[in-house]
Design the sequence.
């Protein structure tokens, strides 16, 4: 391969990562490309966890001996994993597979169990290590940090449009939510949700919205991945790193089926981007409700509606009137903001007016990513084998 195609491939793969779809890279491997890059961090955690052999009830000299013994156990486990792969005993892993994962999760958990029978500490250590591995894998494999950056840049560009949307496309929702905010039944209902039940209610509304998006997005993704002609693909890749290779693409550019991980990657990007927009809109609605409440709802009125003393969080004087922010007011505003988020989630996919504001720009960027992938696989990279029956572009 010449230097120019190699440079095009490198820049295209960086483009995929920057947009949160690293799984579009050909032959993308979790063992090689994700966990192995995290070996230095995992090694540091692995060594630090030797302190789990200590016990605060022991004298200092016993803790020193326990830590030295724990270090010996860790080194022995490290050497054993290297021996299984026929590497030097103390070499740093160059490939993270099942043996390395088992050593990282289980061996540090053995230390508090072996030195003092600390069962709870052992279970916590194993759970924390497993959660850390999962966070590193998911965060790196699916490009969470680049995805965050890309999504927030999009959100910043759309901030003015979203503010206009509240005035132009959401007036009925604002009126309806404001009407509910001034009803004592809503205040009574949220006041009765004590303990974790209020958070459970908000979480339930959020899960409903995510489930609705998750059931509708696959059909949308399949539509975005279909291209009618080679000219349509080459137009879409203009201004991207793969553009120089588009001229050498075959007359018919296929878009190979997505693997399960690629499907998950695309859906995660769509859910995350849509979710940020919806959270911003619902937060703005919640802030509007708080402002309305501070002007119109006095502590005495709030107490009469809820039948309980109010919990004042802040107050200040403005134009001769004392404006008060209470816990009850935040609870009602939070519930109505979550309800608004569910409404906007459904409308963003089903209503044409909302789609133009919430979804069309994201759809255009995803369609461009599919076009770049198609040219990338047809020119500078070999198509990866797909073993599933899923297809991004069903007939």
Sequence:
């Amino acid at each position: 391969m010449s230097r120019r195609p190699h440079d095009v491939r490198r820049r295209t793969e960086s483009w995929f990562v920057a947009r949160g779809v690293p799984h579009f890279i050909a032959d993308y491997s979790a063992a090689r490309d994700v966990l192995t890059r995290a070996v230095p961090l995992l090694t540091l955690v692995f060594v630090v966890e030797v302190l789990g052999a200590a016990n605060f009830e022991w004298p200092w000299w016993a803790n020193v001996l326990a830590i030295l013994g724990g270090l010996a156990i860790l080194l022995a486990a490290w050497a054993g994993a290297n021996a299984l792969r026929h590497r030097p005993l103390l070499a740093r892993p160059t490939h993270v597979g099942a043996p390395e994962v088992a050593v990282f999760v289980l061996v540090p958990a053995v230390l508090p169990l072996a030195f003092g029978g600390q069962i709870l500490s052992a279970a916590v250590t194993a759970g924390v290590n497993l959660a850390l591995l999962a966070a590193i894998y998911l965060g790196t494999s699916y490009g969470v940090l680049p995805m965050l950056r890309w999504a927030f840049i999009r959100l910043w560009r759309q901030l003015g449009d979203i503010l206009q949307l509240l005035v132009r496309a959401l007036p009925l929702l604002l009126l309806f939510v404001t009407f509910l905010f001034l009803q004592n039944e809503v205040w009574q209902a949220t006041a009765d949700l004590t303990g974790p039940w209020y958070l459970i209610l908000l979480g339930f509304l959020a899960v409903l919205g995510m489930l609705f998006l998750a059931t509708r997005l696959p059909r949308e993704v399949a539509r975005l991945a279909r291209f009618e002609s080679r000219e349509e693909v080459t137009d879409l890749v203009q201004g991207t790193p793969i553009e120089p290779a588009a001229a050498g693409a075959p007359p018919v550019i296929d878009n190979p089926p997505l693997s399960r991980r690629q499907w998950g990657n695309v859906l995660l990007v769509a859910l995350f981007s849509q979710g940020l927009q919806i959270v911003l809109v619902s937060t703005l609605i919640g802030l509007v409700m708080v402002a309305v409440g501070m002007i119109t709802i006095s502590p005495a009125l709030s107490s009469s509606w809820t039948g309980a003393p109010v919990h004042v969080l802040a107050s200040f004087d403005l134009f001769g009137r004392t404006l008060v922010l209470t816990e009850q007011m935040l609870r009602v505003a939070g519930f109505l903001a979550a309800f608004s988020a569910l409404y906007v989630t459904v409308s963003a996919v089903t209503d044409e007016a909302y789609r133009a504001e919430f979804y069309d720009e994201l759809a255009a960027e995803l369609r461009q990513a599919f076009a770049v992938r198609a040219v990338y696989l047809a020119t500078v990279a070999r198509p990866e084998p797909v073993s599933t029956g899923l297809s991004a572009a069903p007939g």
Summary: Residues 32 and 155 are 33 Å apart (CA to CA). The first helix runs from residue 3 to 18.
